[in-house]
Structure formats: C-alpha cells, structure tokens
Amino acid sequence: MRTPGKVEVVQAEMERYNISCLGLSEVRWTGKGHFRTDKGNLIIYSGSESRKEAGVGAILDKGMSASLLGYNPISNRILTIRISSKPWNLTLIQVYAPTNQATDREKEDFYSQAAKQDIVLLSGDFNAKIGKGERGGARHRSHAIEDAI
Q1: In angstroms, rounded to a whole number, what is the distance separating the alpha carbons of residues 118 and 89?
Q2: Where are the domains of the chain?
Q3: If we measure between CA atoms, which residue out of 84, 76, 145, 71 comes closest to residue 118?
Q4: 78/127 Cα distance (integer angstroms)
Q5: 49-93 pLDDT, tens per residue?
Q6: The whole model's pTM is what?
C-alpha cells in the first residue's frame, strides 16, 4: 500500500464490487491512526512504530464510516473496528497472523483477542496453506476456492 496510487486503485475496486468495508494486510505503514481519502473513504491503520513491515488496516466507505463507533490499533498485526449496527453492534478484527516459525505462546496470544458481546468478523492473512501436501498428505480444504470452481 506504500506505492503511489495504490489506495486509489483499491478504492476503485471497492466501488466496482460494491464493497463498503475492506480489510488490509501487509500495508507496511508506520504508526497508528486514520485519515480520509479524496473520495471521502476512511482508512484506519495500525503499523510498526518505526519499521515499514507487516501492518494492518481497513477502508470504510462514507456510509460505513458514519456508523463507526471506534477502533483499537492493538499492534502491527491486529486492528479492531467497532461498527454501530442493528440489532447488535459489529466488531471487525483485521489481522496479519504470525507464520509457523512463531512460538506457540505467540500464536495463542495472537488468537485470543476477540470482543465478548458483539458479532465478530475475523478477516486477514492467516498465512494458511490449503490443498494437497507435497507428500500426498491432506491439508484443510473445506473452504478452498479451487473446490468451488
């Protein structure tokens, strides 16, 4: 997302596919915060304090951003966003999960972040592998795109 014009391209695709809220992974922006684009969309992001690595974010269109209750930039890998909705509020958790090289404790800490009373949508890059393994072993594939084609 650091390439000039990338935000504009993503916004155009959101309009094309009628997407009102889009989660972003690996944005590689530093700091935490939000800003409005020239089109009026709201971008919320959570990155590293100094290094341009990892990072998560979300783009809310004008309509969705009007329902924003707040957001919590937990780390450069986790961002939560609360949206006012009926009959319940909605919490979006945008993530960029650690890879298999991370410790079990790091993985457990990462996945334990969730709201307790809202509907929760979890979105992000979980670094998962699907399909048949190289040695013929089966991997989880109940929601693989290749099975739907």
Answers
A1: 6
A2: 6-148
A3: 84
A4: 14
A5: 888 878 999 999 999 999 999 999 988 888 999 999 988 899 898
A6: 0.71
